[in-house]
Amino acid sequence: MKDLFATLPDEPPPLPPDYLDTVLTRGRRAVRRRRVGVAAAWAVLLLLVAALLPAVHLPAQPAARSARPSLPDHLADYSLLTSTVGRAPAGRAIALYGYGNGETVNMFQSLVVGADSDTYRRVDAMAERNRPSALLSPDGTRVLLGDDRGQTGDLVLVDLTTGDRRSVPLGERAGVRLLAWSPDGRHVAYSAAPLRHTDEFGSVNVVEAQVARGGTLRLLDLATGRDTPVPALRPAWTAAFAPDSRRLAVQVGQEAHLIDLTGREYARVPVPAGRELAAEVGWSPDGAFLATVPWLGGGPSSGDTSHGNFLWKAGDVEFVPIAAGTPPTRVPDVVQLLGWRAADSLVAVTVDGGGRVSLVEVRLGTGTRRTLSRFDTGHSCELGTQSCQVFDLHLATGLLPQLTVRDAGRPRRGPWPTPLSGGVGVVLAGAAYLLWRRTGWRPGRGRGPAA
C-alpha cells in the first residue's frame, strides 16, 4: 500500500475549467427533476383519487325532507355527469321531465329534480324501457312507468327515496298509456290495448298511437294490485282524478265521462270541439269544473296525442262547469297545465319567443302571473352543439299548495357514472406512467449529482 501511494504525484492534476460550476449545475438539475417528478406524481395521484372517488358507491343518503317543498328558481343545464336514481337515490322530487336533443344524435335524459335540495338524478328504469310514458306520484316519492318497447306484462314502480323498484303485474300483456295518478297516491288510471305490430328495431314508439286509438280504461289499485277494466270507456284519451280521489273524469271522443272507482258512470260533461281534458290535472281542486286545452296532435280519432313532444305550442286553458255555475275566464298563452296551487291559482308552462321554457303561477280571474322557475335551454346539449328541449314534464301535484321557490344552488348530480369515472382513471393513470418515463425518477435514484 505504501508503495502504491508513493507512486502518486505530489501535486494532483489540474481540474478542467469550470469543473465545480458544472458539478453544481448537474446536482441542482437532478434535484429539480426529482422534486418535479415527485410533485407531479402526487398531483396525478390526487387527480386520480378525485376522479375515482365519485365512482365509489357509498350508502345512499337522500336529502332530508324540509318543512315545505320547494322548486329552484332555475333548473340546471344538461350534464353527462348526472347519476341515477338506482345508484344514488336523492329523495322526493318536485318534477319529472325529459331533457335533451336529437338533432344530430339522440342524447336525452329522463330526470327528477329534488323537492328539498338541488339534486338531479336520471331515472335509469325509464332509459331501460325506451323512455316510456311515466307519472310522478303526487307526493313526489315515486315514479310509475310503462314500456315503450312494445307490449308489457307489468308496470314498474320506482321509489325515489331508496332507488328500489317494484314490478306491478298486469292481467295480460298489452301496450300501455299511463293517464293519471289519484291525489291520495293509491290509484292509477291507464289505457291498455293489444298491439297489432311493433317496431323491430325499437327506434319508433308505436305504443302511444295504437293505444290512444283503441285503448280501454283500466283502474289499478297500487295497494292491493287489483286491476279493474272499464270496457265501456274506449278509447280512453285523457283522464283526471277528482280532488277526493274517489272519482275520475275520462275523455272518450268529445265527452268527459265521470265515474267512480268501480267504473260506474254517473255523469257526462261535453268537451268543446278541438279540445281535450287537460291530462292528469284537469279536475279543479274545488271539484266545480274541468280544465280543457287544445289538441296538441290530431285529436282522439287520429291517435296522435303529441303529449310526448317538445314543449313549444302555446294555447289556452278553458273551463267547463261540471254542474251549474259560471266557469273562470280562460287563461291564454299556456303550453301545458301542470297542476294547481289552489282553486283560483294554477301552475303552467310558458315558452317565450326565444324558446325559453318557464313555470308560472297564474291567478284565475285577474290573470296575474308569477314566474316560479326557468329551464336552462342554452347550447349545452349534444356535447354543447345544440339547444336543450324539455318534454314530458310532470310536477308532484300534491306538493304544490305548500310550494315555495328557493334560490338555485350548485347542482348536486351524485357520483359520476361508472364508465366515465373509469375512463378518466385510465387517462390519468396513463399520464402518470408517461410522466414517470419522462422524468426517469425512481425511489432511491438520483440522490446526488453524478461526477
TrEMBL record:
The name this protein goes by in its record: WD40-like Beta Propeller Repeat
Keywords: Membrane, Transmembrane, Transmembrane helix
TM ranges: 36-56, 416-436
Classification via Gene3D superfamilies: TolB, C-terminal domain (2.120.10.30)
Naturally occurring in which organism (per UniProt): Micromonospora siamensis
SUPFAM superfamilies referenced in this protein's UniProt entry, alphabetically: DPP6 N-terminal domain-like (SSF82171)
InterPro entries: 6-blade_b-propeller_TolB-like
